[in-house]
Amino acid sequence: MKNLIIDLKVHEDSRGKLIAIESMHDVPFSIKRTYYVFDTPENEVRGFHAHKALNQFLWSPTGGIEILMDDGNEKKVYVLDNAKSGLLVPCGYWHEMKWLSKEAILCVVASDYYVEEDYIRNYEEFKDHVVRGYWHGNQI
Ligand code: TYD
Description:
Blueprint lengths: L4 E3 L2 E4 L2 E4 L13 E5 L7 E7 L4 E4 L5 E6 L4 E6 L4 E5 L4 E6 L6 E5 L8 E2 L2 H9 L9
Antiparallel strand pairs: 1-9, 2-3, 4-11, 5-10, 5-12, 6-9, 6-11, 7-8, 7-10
This protein binds thymidine-5'-diphosphate.
Thymidine-5'-diphosphate binds next to β4 and β5.
């Protein structure tokens, strides 16, 4: 699996640190939506889906979140536990997010609006898409 971590540029001075995330500059897609997930209990796991076309970038500025990424052939676990880097979740990756602490906030920028039809929530259906090469040439 290719490296999906993106390190962000930190603007730091005596007043603190600032990070900006710009379309096509800091993440390799145009941003149409942002959302965040919070007040999730420790050890709770969310996600359990892949997207047909949506690309997303995830980070957790406080606490820790473990992300299982699965491209259908290989699985890799990433930990999001700082404000300075995040994880690219391109379309075609099954992902599961586990809260390591209840303070953790999952912040997301996404390439499109919320469209339920873009979700694949059944793992067998996901594997079927992988076998058919559905995402070939489609991933960023
Ligand atoms: P869900 O997909 O179950 O969250 P997760 O991927 O973390 O398991 O989404 C929870 C609810 O929020 C569901 O009713 C759909 C809604 N929702 C929106 O209305 N807009 C959004 O941008 C997202 C991501 C979810």
